[in-house]
Amino acid sequence: MYVDIVPNRNSPPAILLRESYRINGKPAKRTIGNISHMSMEDALALKKFLGKKKKEQKEILFQGMNFKIERSLPHGNVKAVLGTLKNLGLDK
C-alpha cells in the first residue's frame, strides 16, 4: 500500500491510496481510496510512514508511550475454529 500524488493541470493534485500487485508478471495498481481531502503535509507524512518497514511503523506509532510490544500471537486459527463451531451450531 502506498500514497500516490497525481498532478492535475488546472486543479490541486489528486492524493490516492493505492495497492500494487502483479497480473501474469506485469505490474498493476488498484486505487483503494481517494484521500485528496487531506492536507499535503498529512499526505506526505502518510506516504513516508507507509514507505517504512512494519517494525519501523510500530516504533513510530508507539513513540512516546510507556509500553513496548514484545510479542503478539496470531489469532486467525482460533477465529476459524470458532467460526466453524458456530456454523455447525456447536457453540451453544
* DSSP summary: helix tally: 3
The overall strand count is 3
Q: Which shape, going by the Cα principal axes?
A: extended
Order of helices and strands: EEEHHH
> Mean pLDDT, nearest integer?
84
Strand content: 25-35%
Computed over alpha carbons, the radius of gyration is 20 Å
Briefly note the structural class of the backbone: alpha+beta
Number of domain units: 1
Cα distance spanning the termini: 40 Å
Q: Which regions have little confidence, pLDDT < 50, spanning 5+ residues?
A: none
Biggest sheet, in brief? 3 strands, antiparallel
Helix content: 25-40%
Strand order of the largest sheet: 1-2-3
Jot down its keywords.
single chain; 92 residues; alpha+beta; three-stranded antiparallel sheet; 26% strand
Topology:
Elements: E1 2-6, E2 14-23, E3 26-34, H1 40-50, H2 54-61, H3 76-88
Antiparallel strand pairs: 1-2, 2-3
